[in-house]
Amino acid sequence: MKVGILYSRIRKDEKLLLAELRERGHDVVKIDVRDLQFGLTEAPEVFADIDIVVDRCLATSRSLYATKFCEAYGVPVVNSAETAQICADKVQNSLALAGAGVPTPATDVAFTKEAAMESIEKFGYPCVLKPVVGSWGRLMAKIDSKSAAEAILEHKATLGHYEHKVFYVQEFVDKPGRDVRVLATDGEPVAAMVRSSDHWLTNAAKGAETDQFELDDEAKALVQQASDAVGGGLLGVDLMEVGGDGEAHSASEQSSGETPRDSANYTVHEVNHTVEFKALNQAADVDVPATVVDWLEAKAAAETKQEVVA
Amino acid sequence: MTECVECGADVTLHDNAEVGEILDCTTCGAELELVERTPPVLQRAPELEEDWGE
């Protein structure tokens, strides 16, 4: 198959993917989106005869538009523009998860400092303030006091891009020092790992330690639901363990004494659409790039079949 | 082998270096992007942007 890789930076993840695709004899076209002009109707020449495009753009803004253009040109792309749009924005991400009945941390969105402050006071301390667009744990704030909340809100309102004036306030989930990252293809788990840290942020990008994780049936079902909720694709689904062992309850549950989320053992806090998998590839016994390429081959074959039928 | 655009030190490329990959200059620490493979051409890598990630 002829595969296009949309990119603006080649990370280890892309190198793993490129190596696997080339090893299998696929025709790989690297497409640096920084070099292109996207017209409204005609695809840039580089897209000619491509069976499937894989969006690996590092910049979310580019990912959103590039996938949209691919679809406008009739070029099959994974992940879809719709999936990218939902996953790129934490508000849309949370709405999709909650709308699909997937357990997800309680969240408020407010547009003024005053309204955000009311949410923060409602959640109690600590709670969490996140940027609506962002990754790798950047600009995340765990708010421990009213004075800290006031300072952070003031900074965001005064110094930030307009997106920082959309205040995304979330309950603090007292997870057991780790969270779970699952790489999934259309909801089917490829591999999973726990990311552990003494810090409240457990992103691999923040230096968390990783280890393989065996998913139970409940987690597998949640991964499928979360994937469906955002439109499917090659996704990184992030879960936190809550409730099940009676130790790791969310802050609001602890203060209210409520039963933890209908006794669910997990809460899904995010789904990532240009998922990095190098850490998972090291932690898990699975050959992650090989499994991803298996899936891509099946996707491309399905697209070709669909074209023939049409 | 090529030269760091920041400090002029020698930079060695891995055999499987890819265009678009970021290399660190071991002398000055600059982040360099490989923009041509043969012959190798490096330029200073773009600064981290707020929307970067996964």
Domain module tally of chain B: 1
Span from first to last CA of chain B? 32 Å
Question: Per CATH, which architecture of the largest domain in chain A?
Answer: 2-Layer Sandwich
CATH topology of the largest domain in chain A: D-amino Acid Aminotransferase, Chain A, domain 1
Strand order of the largest sheet of chain B: 3-4-5
Please, what is the average pLDDT of chain B?
Answer: 93
How would you summarize what this structure contains?
The complex is a heterodimer of chains A (310) and B (54). With 310 residues, chain A is an alpha+beta fold. Chain A is built from 10 helices and 13 strands.
Architecture blueprint of SSEs:
The complex is a heterodimer of chains A (310) and B (54).
Chain A: E1 2-7, H1 12-23, E2 27-32, E3 52-55, H2 60-73, E4 77-78, H3 81-88, H4 90-99, E5 107-110, H5 113-123, E6 127-130, E7 141-143, H6 146-159, E8 167-171, E9 178-185, E10 188-196, E11 209-212, H7 217-230, E12 234-241, H8 251-256, E13 266-272, H9 278-283, H10 288-309
Chain B: E1 2-3, E2 10-11, E3 22-24, E4 31-36, E5 41-44
Antiparallel strand pairs in B: 1-2, 3-4, 4-5
Describe the structure.
The complex is a heterodimer of chains A (310) and B (54). With 310 residues, chain A is an alpha+beta fold. Chain A folds into three domains: 77 residues, Rossmann fold; 119 residues, ATP-grasp fold, B domain (D-amino Acid Aminotransferase, Chain A, domain 1, 2-Layer Sandwich), CATH 3.30.470.20; 66 residues, ATP-grasp fold, A domain (Dna Ligase, domain 1, 2-Layer Sandwich), CATH 3.30.1490. Helices cover 38% and strands 23% of the residues of chain A. In chain A, helix 3 crosses helix 4, helix 4 crosses helix 7 and helix 5 packs antiparallel against helix 6. The two termini of chain A are 20 Å apart. About 5% of the residues of chain A have low confidence. Chain B has 54 residues and is an all-beta fold. Chain B has one domain: Rubrerythrin, domain 2. Chain B contains no helices and five strands. In chain B, the strands form two sheets. Chain B has a three-stranded antiparallel β-sheet, with no helix packed on it. In chain B, 22% of the residues are buried. Chains A and B meet through helix 1 of A and loops of B.
